[in-house]
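Technical appendix A lists one of the benchmark inputs used to test multi-chain prediction within the project. The record comprises two sequence entries:
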Amino acid sequence: QSALTQPASVSGSPGQSITISCTGTSSDVGGYNYVSWFQQHPGKAPKLMIYDVSNRPSGVSNRFSGSKSGNTASLTISGLQAEDEADYFCTSYTNSSTVVFGGGTKLTAL
Amino acid sequence: EVQLVQSGAEVKKPGESLRISCKGFGDSFSSYWITWVRQLPGRGLEWMGRIDPSDSYTNYSPSFQGHVTISADKSINTAYLQWSSLKASDTAIYYCARGGVTIDYWGQGTLVTVSS
Protein backbone atom coordinates (compact mmCIF):
# COMPACT_ATOMS: atom_id res chain seq x y z
CA GLN A 1 0.00 0.00 0.00
CA SER A 2 1.64 3.26 -1.13
CA ALA A 3 1.54 6.33 1.06
CA LEU A 4 -0.90 9.05 0.13
CA THR A 5 0.73 12.00 -1.67
CA GLN A 6 0.97 15.33 0.12
CA PRO A 7 3.08 18.39 -0.71
CA ALA A 8 6.24 18.43 1.38
CA SER A 9 5.66 21.99 2.49
CA VAL A 10 3.24 24.88 2.27
CA SER A 11 3.46 28.38 3.69
CA GLY A 12 1.24 31.35 4.27
CA SER A 13 1.09 34.68 6.02
CA PRO A 14 -0.99 35.21 9.17
CA GLY A 15 -4.61 35.77 8.25
CA GLN A 16 -4.35 34.02 4.90
CA SER A 17 -5.96 30.73 3.91
CA ILE A 18 -3.95 27.71 2.86
CA THR A 19 -4.93 24.33 1.47
CA ILE A 20 -3.08 21.03 1.80
CA SER A 21 -3.89 18.27 -0.65
CA CYS A 22 -3.83 14.53 -0.10
CA THR A 23 -3.97 12.36 -3.21
CA GLY A 24 -4.64 8.66 -3.26
CA THR A 25 -6.46 6.23 -5.48
CA SER A 26 -9.91 4.77 -5.92
CA SER A 27 -8.78 2.03 -3.50
CA ASP A 28 -8.46 4.46 -0.63
CA VAL A 29 -9.32 8.18 -0.71
CA GLY A 30 -11.64 7.89 -3.69
CA GLY A 31 -13.42 4.81 -2.42
CA TYR A 32 -14.30 5.75 1.14
CA ASN A 33 -15.34 8.80 3.14
CA TYR A 34 -12.87 7.86 5.88
CA VAL A 35 -10.27 10.55 5.42
CA SER A 36 -8.78 12.14 8.54
CA TRP A 37 -6.30 14.95 9.10
CA PHE A 38 -3.84 15.24 11.99
CA GLN A 39 -1.73 18.11 13.27
CA GLN A 40 1.61 17.35 14.89
CA HIS A 41 3.80 19.89 16.66
CA PRO A 42 7.47 18.98 17.24
CA GLY A 43 7.93 16.46 20.00
CA LYS A 44 4.19 15.99 20.46
CA ALA A 45 1.70 13.28 19.60
CA PRO A 46 -0.56 13.92 16.61
CA LYS A 47 -3.93 15.59 17.17
CA LEU A 48 -7.08 14.79 15.20
CA MET A 49 -8.33 17.87 13.32
CA ILE A 50 -10.77 16.46 10.75
CA TYR A 51 -12.41 13.04 10.42
CA ASP A 52 -14.70 11.41 7.87
CA VAL A 53 -13.55 13.95 5.24
CA SER A 54 -15.15 17.05 6.69
CA ASN A 55 -16.11 16.59 10.33
CA ARG A 56 -14.42 18.51 13.14
CA PRO A 57 -13.99 16.97 16.58
CA SER A 58 -15.22 18.95 19.53
CA GLY A 59 -12.72 21.65 20.47
CA VAL A 60 -11.11 22.04 17.03
CA SER A 61 -11.33 25.54 15.61
CA ASN A 62 -13.79 26.10 12.79
CA ARG A 63 -10.88 27.66 10.86
CA PHE A 64 -10.06 24.06 9.90
CA SER A 65 -12.18 22.43 7.21
CA GLY A 66 -11.93 19.36 5.01
CA SER A 67 -13.27 18.28 1.65
CA LYS A 68 -12.81 15.64 -1.02
CA SER A 69 -13.08 15.44 -4.78
CA GLY A 70 -12.41 12.15 -6.50
CA ASN A 71 -9.14 10.68 -5.26
CA THR A 72 -7.94 13.90 -3.62
CA ALA A 73 -8.83 15.18 -0.18
CA SER A 74 -8.00 18.66 1.05
CA LEU A 75 -7.50 20.43 4.36
CA THR A 76 -8.08 24.17 4.40
CA ILE A 77 -6.96 26.43 7.21
CA SER A 78 -8.45 29.89 7.11
CA GLY A 79 -7.21 32.91 9.06
CA LEU A 80 -3.77 31.34 9.45
CA GLN A 81 -2.24 31.82 12.89
CA ALA A 82 1.30 31.33 14.12
CA GLU A 83 0.15 28.42 16.31
CA ASP A 84 -0.98 26.55 13.18
CA GLU A 85 2.65 26.04 12.18
CA ALA A 86 3.11 22.27 12.41
CA ASP A 87 3.23 19.09 10.36
CA TYR A 88 -0.06 17.84 8.91
CA PHE A 89 -0.82 14.26 7.94
CA CYS A 90 -3.81 12.77 6.16
CA THR A 91 -5.05 9.20 6.47
CA SER A 92 -7.51 7.07 4.56
CA TYR A 93 -9.12 3.69 5.01
CA THR A 94 -8.27 1.29 2.18
CA ASN A 95 -9.90 -1.61 0.39
CA SER A 96 -7.41 -3.94 2.15
CA SER A 97 -9.04 -3.11 5.51
CA THR A 98 -5.94 -1.15 6.48
CA VAL A 99 -5.24 2.54 6.91
CA VAL A 100 -2.64 4.50 4.98
CA PHE A 101 -0.97 7.77 5.96
CA GLY A 102 0.13 10.61 3.75
CA GLY A 103 3.79 11.58 3.73
CA GLY A 104 3.11 14.73 5.71
CA THR A 105 3.19 18.46 4.96
CA LYS A 106 5.18 21.04 6.89
CA LEU A 107 3.16 24.22 7.29
CA THR A 108 5.13 27.40 7.82
CA ALA A 109 3.42 30.56 8.97
CA LEU A 110 5.55 33.32 7.47
CA GLU B 1 -11.41 11.80 29.84
CA VAL B 2 -9.92 9.12 27.60
CA GLN B 3 -6.21 8.54 28.11
CA LEU B 4 -3.77 6.12 26.57
CA VAL B 5 -0.59 5.79 28.63
CA GLN B 6 2.37 4.07 27.02
CA SER B 7 5.36 2.41 28.63
CA GLY B 8 8.67 4.24 28.87
CA ALA B 9 11.57 4.61 26.49
CA GLU B 10 13.64 1.51 25.72
CA VAL B 11 17.24 1.00 24.64
CA LYS B 12 17.96 -2.40 23.17
CA LYS B 13 20.62 -4.22 21.19
CA PRO B 14 20.04 -5.76 17.75
CA GLY B 15 18.59 -9.23 18.05
CA GLU B 16 16.95 -8.62 21.42
CA SER B 17 13.22 -8.97 22.00
CA LEU B 18 10.92 -6.24 23.27
CA ARG B 19 7.31 -5.66 24.23
CA ILE B 20 5.91 -2.18 24.78
CA SER B 21 2.50 -1.43 26.23
CA CYS B 22 -0.43 0.95 25.96
CA LYS B 23 -2.92 1.17 28.86
CA GLY B 24 -6.32 2.75 28.42
CA PHE B 25 -8.09 4.86 31.03
CA GLY B 26 -11.44 6.58 31.16
CA ASP B 27 -13.55 4.69 28.67
CA SER B 28 -14.59 1.18 27.72
CA PHE B 29 -11.28 -0.17 26.39
CA SER B 30 -12.79 -3.16 24.61
CA SER B 31 -15.24 -1.02 22.69
CA TYR B 32 -12.57 0.47 20.42
CA TRP B 33 -9.82 -0.85 18.23
CA ILE B 34 -6.25 0.07 19.20
CA THR B 35 -3.92 1.08 16.38
CA TRP B 36 -0.12 1.20 16.43
CA VAL B 37 1.77 3.82 14.42
CA ARG B 38 5.51 4.18 13.79
CA GLN B 39 7.38 7.43 13.36
CA LEU B 40 10.98 7.10 12.20
CA PRO B 41 13.36 9.86 13.33
CA GLY B 42 12.45 13.08 11.55
CA ARG B 43 10.00 11.26 9.31
CA GLY B 44 6.28 10.78 8.78
CA LEU B 45 3.77 8.43 10.34
CA GLU B 46 3.24 4.82 9.28
CA TRP B 47 0.22 2.67 10.10
CA MET B 48 1.45 -0.65 11.48
CA GLY B 49 -1.72 -2.48 12.40
CA ARG B 50 -4.64 -2.62 14.77
CA ILE B 51 -6.35 -4.92 17.24
CA ASP B 52 -9.88 -5.32 18.51
CA PRO B 53 -9.34 -5.89 22.25
CA SER B 54 -12.73 -7.58 22.63
CA ASP B 55 -11.60 -10.64 20.66
CA SER B 56 -7.94 -9.89 19.78
CA TYR B 57 -8.65 -9.86 16.04
CA THR B 58 -5.77 -8.12 14.27
CA ASN B 59 -5.04 -6.39 10.95
CA TYR B 60 -1.47 -5.65 9.87
CA SER B 61 0.01 -3.41 7.23
CA PRO B 62 1.84 -5.59 4.67
CA SER B 63 4.96 -3.57 5.55
CA PHE B 64 4.88 -4.83 9.14
CA GLN B 65 3.20 -8.24 8.86
CA GLY B 66 5.55 -10.86 10.25
CA HIS B 67 7.92 -8.30 11.78
CA VAL B 68 5.84 -7.32 14.82
CA THR B 69 3.04 -8.82 16.88
CA ILE B 70 0.10 -6.84 18.24
CA SER B 71 -1.80 -8.26 21.18
CA ALA B 72 -4.12 -7.13 23.96
CA ASP B 73 -5.31 -8.09 27.42
CA LYS B 74 -8.79 -6.65 27.85
CA SER B 75 -8.87 -7.61 31.55
CA ILE B 76 -6.27 -4.92 32.25
CA ASN B 77 -7.18 -2.52 29.41
CA THR B 78 -3.77 -2.91 27.80
CA ALA B 79 -2.51 -3.41 24.27
CA TYR B 80 0.99 -4.51 23.32
CA LEU B 81 3.43 -4.25 20.44
CA GLN B 82 6.27 -6.73 20.40
CA TRP B 83 9.35 -7.74 18.46
CA SER B 84 11.16 -11.07 18.70
CA SER B 85 14.40 -9.81 17.14
CA LEU B 86 15.02 -6.09 16.91
CA LYS B 87 17.00 -4.38 14.17
CA ALA B 88 18.69 -1.00 14.16
CA SER B 89 16.09 0.11 11.61
CA ASP B 90 13.38 -0.38 14.26
CA THR B 91 14.64 2.74 16.04
CA ALA B 92 11.61 5.02 16.12
CA ILE B 93 8.82 6.46 18.20
CA TYR B 94 5.84 4.14 18.45
CA TYR B 95 2.38 5.49 19.17
CA CYS B 96 -0.75 3.67 20.16
CA ALA B 97 -4.05 5.32 19.32
CA ARG B 98 -7.74 4.63 19.77
CA GLY B 99 -9.74 3.62 16.73
CA GLY B 100 -9.38 1.24 13.83
CA VAL B 101 -10.52 3.46 10.96
CA THR B 102 -10.85 6.89 12.52
CA ILE B 103 -8.14 7.43 15.12
CA ASP B 104 -8.97 9.97 17.78
CA TYR B 105 -6.99 9.73 21.03
CA TRP B 106 -3.25 9.07 20.98
CA GLY B 107 -0.78 7.84 23.54
CA GLN B 108 2.27 9.93 24.34
CA GLY B 109 4.59 7.70 22.29
CA THR B 110 7.37 5.28 23.24
CA LEU B 111 10.89 5.88 21.94
CA VAL B 112 12.63 2.64 21.02
CA THR B 113 16.35 2.87 20.33
CA VAL B 114 18.15 -0.16 18.91
CA SER B 115 21.90 0.16 18.91
CA SER B 116 24.88 -2.07 19.45
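The CA atoms of residues 40 and 46 of chain A lie 4 Å apart. The first strand of chain A starts at residue 9 and ends at 12. Comparable benchmark entries are summarised in Table A2.
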